[in-house]
Amino acid sequence: MAKNYDLVIVGGGPGGYVAAIRAAQLGLSTAIVEQSKLGGTCLHKGCIPSKALLRSAEVYRTTKEQAHEFGVDVQNITLNFEQAQNRKNGIVDQLHKGIQALMKKGKIDVYEGYGRILGPSIFSPMPGTISVEFEDNRENEMLIPQNVIIATGSRPRFLEGLTPDGKRILTSDDLMTLDQLPKSLIVVGGGVIGIEWASMLHDFGVEVTVVEYSNAILPTEDEDIQKAMAKSFKKRGIKVVTNANLIATSLQKLEDRVEITAEIDGEQQTFSAEKLLLSVGRQANTENIGLENTDIQVVRGFIEVNNHYQTKESHIYAIGDVIGGLQLAHVASHEGIHAVEHIAGFEPETLELHKIARCIYGSPEVASIGLTEKQAKEQGIEIAVGKFPFAGIGKALVFGETEGFVKMIADKKTEDLVGVHIIGAHATELISEASLAMLVDATPWEIASHIHPHPSLSEAIGEAALAVEGKAIHQ
Fold first, then answer.
1. Residue 323 and residue 152: Cα distance in Å, rounded?
2. HEC profile for 425-438?
3. Tens digits of per-residue pLDDT, 407-425?
4. DSSP states of 357-395
5. What is the spatial distance between Cα 123 and Cα 101, in angstroms, rounded to a whole number?
6. In sequence order, what are the residues at sequence separation of 6 or more whose Cβ sits closer than 8 angstroms to the Cβ of residue 38?
7. pLDDT tens across 204-215, in order?
8. What does the pLDDT average to over 110-130?
9. What residues act catalytically?
10. CB within 8 Å of 314: residues ≥ 6 apart
C-alpha cells in the first residue's frame, strides 16, 4: 500500500528531524524514514555521548588535580567508568524520548526502516518514491512524496589497509561502547574527533599518543590555536607526533597490543599501544539509497546541491554531512530548516559557512568562527589582530582555568570582523557572542563598546576587541 506525503525525509539525525519539525509547523504532511534511532549519530554515537563522557573526564581530572586548591580535600579518588557510561546512556535516552515526543506533537510519521529512492514508476512519473525496507521481512512500504530531503549523514572514514575490527582497531563508534578503558591508545588523526578523544581518555588515565599526517594537530584551525593546543597536550603528558605517514602494511595485531610504523621526516618510528583509534574524518552515506535511479550528482563522495540544497532533481533536496561542507550538527539543522522553507515557497537567506561557529570540546576547549590569520592574508586582506589571555581575567583565576586566549582578527581598511579564535575554559560557550557579531556585521569597536559584565570570562572578548586597536585595558 502506498501513502502520499508533501515531504519525506530519509534520515532522522539533527538535520532530518529538525527539518521534519519545521515542515510540520508549516503545515506539510511529513514522514521520516530512519533505519536506526531518531537523533542519528549526533545523539547516539557522537555529539551528546562524547560530551557526556568529556564532562565525566573533566570532573575526574579537576577533583584529582585541583580540588585541594579550592580548599576541598578528597581522599581515595577513583574512576567508576561504568557509572560514567551509565550517566551518558541516561542522557541519550532522555533526549531520544524527547525527539520521539516532538514527532508525535508534530503528527510526523516515523518509519523505522531503510529508505531507498525509486525511479519513475506506477506510483509517480518522477524519481523520488521512497521504498521502506524492514528488517523483519515485512512487505515494503511505498511513500509517495511531493518532495524528498536526503539526510543520511556520515560514518567514520577508514584508511586503506587499516580496517577497524572493534577489538584492536577502533572507530569513535567503538569507543562509545567500551566496557573498560584500555591502558594505552594510539590516536590516528589529530583533527577535532581525535583531539577530543585524546583529551578525554588521557584525563581518564589512558596513555595516549596522537599521530597526525599534517604538520600540526587541528590543521584547519588558526596557527596560534594549533600551537597552544600542542603546548597544552605536551604539558599534560599527551604525546603528539606530526608529519607522520603511517605504513599500513606494518600493522601487527598482537595478543595484548597493536603495533604500527610511520615514516617521519625520512625516518621510521614504531608505535605500540593496547588499542588504535582511527580518527581520519567522516564519509558520506550515499551508497545503496537509490541515487542511481535519479539524476543526482555525487562529487568527491558528496551529493551536489545548490544554495537551497536542491539536487539535480529539483524536488529532491540533500542536507547535512551527506553534502560535505561543515559536517556539524547545528549546520545540518539549519540546512534542514532552509530546505523546508524553500519547499514551502519562501526565499530563505543563503547560509554563509564562514559565519558558523566551530567547536572542539577537549581540554582546553577551542571555538572559532570566520577566517584564520593565514586564510585572511592569503585572501589579500590587510589585517589587525587583537589577542588577550585568560590569565588577565579575574573570573578565569576564580575558576582556576587561566590557560588560553581570545584572538580577534579584523580588516584594517573596512574595520570588519574577519575571525575570532578562542582556546580555554568555556570557549564553546563564549563563541556565541562572536557568532552574533559576525551575523550583524559588528566591528571590534562595537564589540568593545558593549559593556561586558565583571567578573566574567566574556571580558576577554571585550579586551581582545580593544586590543585590535592597541587599547586593551588590562594588558
1. 10
2. CCHHHHHHHHHHHH
3. 999 999 999 999 999 999 9
4. -EEE-SSS-EEEEE--HHHHHHTT--EEEEEEEGGG-HH
5. 31
6. 12, 17, 32, 96, 99, 100, 103, 110
7. 999 999 999 999
8. 93
9. 454
10. none
